[in-house]
């Protein structure tokens, strides 16, 4: 892990709204995957004009979600960006006190869920182009458990600890030059109560 904050907790409505813009959330996700990138690189990934992407990156920076990174090339005209923290945390308890905040949190949560589902749908459409090993190891599962709220909180902590361990291992391996065979892997989990 770097010297960055592990998970920045978003507690203010302005920052939540800044991130909940569809293009900004895509840019943030792509930047988190790349770890550092220029507006030009991100514009190519999202198929938008560099000027538009630059504008939205500045908005993310205004809210402390991303920050300037050390230049990775000799071209001093290009500005490099990186996430300002290792991850983000958005909790219901920080937005439930006012109806407008609760509505914004719900809208943001739906946007993020839609974008995650779009990633999974894209995998389903493209999996034929991946080799058999990736197809064999990719997974989708659903488990239905009967837990207390405290047990659910503990499950969440344990799952996050496991993911962080793998993230730290992969960052250390990449820093040591061990990049062969590595691909970006999305792990989406949802844990919530429901009634039948």
From TrEMBL:
<dbReference type="InterPro" id="IPR011991">
    <property type="entry name" value="ArsR-like_HTH"/>
</dbReference>
<dbReference type="Pfam" id="PF12840">
    <property type="entry name" value="HTH_20"/>
</dbReference>
<dbReference type="InterPro" id="IPR036390">
    <property type="entry name" value="WH_DNA-bd_sf"/>
</dbReference>
<feature type="domain" description="HTH arsR-type">
    <location>
        <begin position="14"/>
        <end position="97"/>
    </location>
</feature>
<keyword id="KW-0805">Transcription regulation</keyword>
<keyword id="KW-0175">Coiled coil</keyword>
<dbReference type="InterPro" id="IPR036388">
    <property type="entry name" value="WH-like_DNA-bd_sf"/>
</dbReference>
<keyword id="KW-0238">DNA-binding</keyword>
<keyword id="KW-0804">Transcription</keyword>
<dbReference type="InterPro" id="IPR001845">
    <property type="entry name" value="HTH_ArsR_DNA-bd_dom"/>
</dbReference>
<dbReference type="GO" id="GO:0003677">
    <property type="term" value="F:DNA binding"/>
</dbReference>
<dbReference type="InterPro" id="IPR051081">
    <property type="entry name" value="HTH_MetalResp_TranReg"/>
</dbReference>
<protein>
    <submittedName>
        <fullName>DNA-binding protein</fullName>
    </submittedName>
</protein>
<dbReference type="GO" id="GO:0003700">
    <property type="term" value="F:DNA-binding transcription factor activity"/>
</dbReference>
<feature type="coiled-coil region">
    <location>
        <begin position="145"/>
        <end position="172"/>
    </location>
</feature>
């Amino acid at each position: 892990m770097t010297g960055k904050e592990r998970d920045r907790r978003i507690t203010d409505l302005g920052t939540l709204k800044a991130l909940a813009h569809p293009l900004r959330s895509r840019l943030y996700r792509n930047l988190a995957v790349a770890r550092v990138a220029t507006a030009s690189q991100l514009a190519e990934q999202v198929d938008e004009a560099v000027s538009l992407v630059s504008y939205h990156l500045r908005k993310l920076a205004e809210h402390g979600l991303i920050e300037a990174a050390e230049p990775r090339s000799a071209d001093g005209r290009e500005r490099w960006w990186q996430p300002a923290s290792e991850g983000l945390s958005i909790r219901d308890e920080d937005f439930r006190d006012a109806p407008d905040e609760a509505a914004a949190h719900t809208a943001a949560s739906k946007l993020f869920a839609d974008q995650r589902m779009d990633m999974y749908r894209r995998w389903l459409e493209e999996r034929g182009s991946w080799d058999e090993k990736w197809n064999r190891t990719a997974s989708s599962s659903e488990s239905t458990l009967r837990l207390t709220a405290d047990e659910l909180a503990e499950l969440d902590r344990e799952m996050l600890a496991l993911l962080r361990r793998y993230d730290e291992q992969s960052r250390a391996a990449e820093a040591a030059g061990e990049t062969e065979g590595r691909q970006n892997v999305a792990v989406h989990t949802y844990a919530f109560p429901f009634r039948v």
